[in-house]
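BUG: 3D viewer hangs when loading the predicted structure for this chain

Environment: internal workstation, default settings.
Expected: structure renders.
Actual: progress bar stalls at 90%.

Input used:
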Amino acid sequence: MWEARLGGCLMKAILDWDATTLAEKIRNGEVTVTEATEKYIRQIKTVNPQLNALVENRFAEALVEAKQCDELLQEGKAQGRLFGVPISMKEALDVAGMHSTGGLKHRKNVVAGEDAVAVARLRQEGAIILGKTNTPALCFCQETDNKLFGRTNNPWDLELTCGGSTGGEGALIAVGGAAVGFGADIGGSIRFPAHFNGIVGFKSGNGQVSAQGHFPAIDQPLQVRMLGLGAMAKSVADAELINDIVADNPPPEVRPDEFTLTVYAKDDRIPLGEETEACLKNIARYFSRDYHVDNTPPPFLHQVSLMWQLIMSHDENGQFLAGAFGDHPFHPVWEYVKEVVTRSSEYHRYLTWAFIGAGLFKPSPKQLTQLKADLAKADEAAKSYFAKRVLVLPVYHTAALPHGGLYREIFSIKKTFLRYMPYIALANVLGLPSLIVPVGEDSRGLPIGVQLVSAVGNERALFHYGRQLEEHFRGYVRCTKYDNF
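Structure tokens produced before the viewer hung:
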């Protein structure tokens, strides 16, 4: 009985520890790499039937690597900031020997020959990859569902969305299925799941982390500026650690006391739920005790949603389409009708409708010229605004919605994305780093997160203030409803 209880306590502790803590426990000999790896594998096997978060595992390989790590540790040869730490990976990032499908049936047999750059850097620091997690097809929607792997559910309520496109990661980290995860964000893909699932997330700024080895490839300059890669985590410390590992140049030190904190005040033109607004007011009161706090609105907040849509709809010379589908024919209108009428298309309707919308919003040469001019103005305004400022902004107007609800709000033919996407689009369009921290819960017990946004080079300020938020407010709280120990 005592041994079983001790095992249960250790199991819970391992699942609750962040990667920074687990790495320290391993180095100190308090837990073996094999023990930690076995516990995470057991947890994934327990939760995945309900969540469908992990879509491909490498459990056997991970256990072999764990044993090798334990041997190296005994020999005094352990090296790396993530030595022996089991992690998970968004399906969009190449992992050598694993499938790289983009959730597309015609790519179900495609196997990556080498690691993505970010994956390689994490493994060089000693991380052990447990498996890859689900995304929408081509990461082209903010809800995680595709025809190859199916839908991922929110662990707090299986009838709710986990967000996307890094939705599988968000759901898995929420239940402690890995010490830390990793994702990418071009339209809220890290931030939606972090917010909906109650975890910490970090989207890097323009050009800070290599996206080489990401499928689909993001090569067009206007889209490259919007893409950021980073951690799906249990702590701000882990988000900072992972960024230090994967960034081409780790951010410089800053003096946080020199920064102004701007906490978003409600704007009637953009929806904001009462419970989220209350969280922001609490944050403003908390920070006002020690720092200069104002509510000066960020520049271009009411323009970025349309700018984001135009950028995402710009497929110069069909480059993105060709890279995603190759010689495999893809006709979005026909496939959408086919799916709606007969449910027999090999493409999820989320994907086909998104491509139809992209076609409708494809910028003309004149619009493209104007867009680039507007971006130049926005960049200049952001440079001034964010020079010594951290903006605390909602992620979305509400906590997690029922499956399909987020899709309907963002992809509605009524263009409601113009109202619902500003909070998310700002950091993408301006190429800014953004840190998501859970700060509260709604009346249903669903997590509510906020994002801290600043300029590239100010990442240390984001992590500084993020740590204060997680310490004073909710922070990461593991969803334990599936525990069976």
